[in-house]
């Protein structure tokens, strides 16, 4: 089976709808076709300041949500990044293969450091894409399910895999991004020209999966659309309606064309009311399942311990090969 690998940050507490539709749904699907590795990336989380107790709680919460979303520890390897020290170790090697200018071109860093104030951004935030390279290459991943915002980092991963292989001999699989076009970028409900993000400008535009379902329904009903009345997919002229159609379509398995027909002659209000119901039906059991995992920390921790063990076996083998290729003297 081909390998899949992806990671998600534990920083915000609740995952948002963009995380779910853009990434986590693909994690679930790829369990069927791939030897899949998924991790909560706590090493990436500390690229911005974290409260230690909160980070620990959010890391558990992230794992619980991934299980609630449908990751099955019998069919994939779910683990916490810091449980596998090889990530940081291969990360160092990758740092030493990356040009300073090359790293400086990463747009995620530019965006995130601009938000923080350039003086406060850490070197860790600057080099996090390079740690991500190591995350992926350690597992010899073929496919990396992510949203559109991660495409540039996967390109960097491919470049570094080829660079290492070219310089030291074939060591790493060159991965490809697994980006599902329709859901690659879910937009903010209040500003449908920017991506939905946990660092959104206004919380009204951000659907957190663990929010009160009533509050979520309200956010959907007050989504920004346009002054036209026709329900039609057109991401340029009608970004708000198109975003709602994408969300509706993906959550229900109905095509956008079918939805356009269903809502022909009806107003935006009808679409929003129905989508609010769809959303409530989706988040309600998700919240319950997440809570069940949180209420049973022993089971959760044992899933994560087994996951780390499986992950380490693979990661250690790759790291040993990389150390050897680079010319490190083996410890006897
Ligand atoms: P940040 O804004 O701090 O980067 P985030 O909201 O992007 O946070 P991440 O943990 O960085 O959350 O992303 C986890 C996964 O979710 C990644 O694969 C990312 O590409 C995907 N993702 C995030 N936001 C969206 C979105 N709006 N639409 C589709 N996919 C998304
Ligand atoms: Mg992101």
Automatic annotation (TrEMBL):
Tell whether Ligase is among the UniProt keywords.
Answer: yes
First-level EC class: ligase
Full protein name:
Tryptophan--tRNA ligase
* EC number per UniProt: 6.1.1.2
Keyword Ligase assigned = yes
Specify the superkingdom.
Answer: Bacteria
**Which keywords annotate this record?**
Ligase
Q: Which organism is it from?
A: Streptomyces achmelvichensis
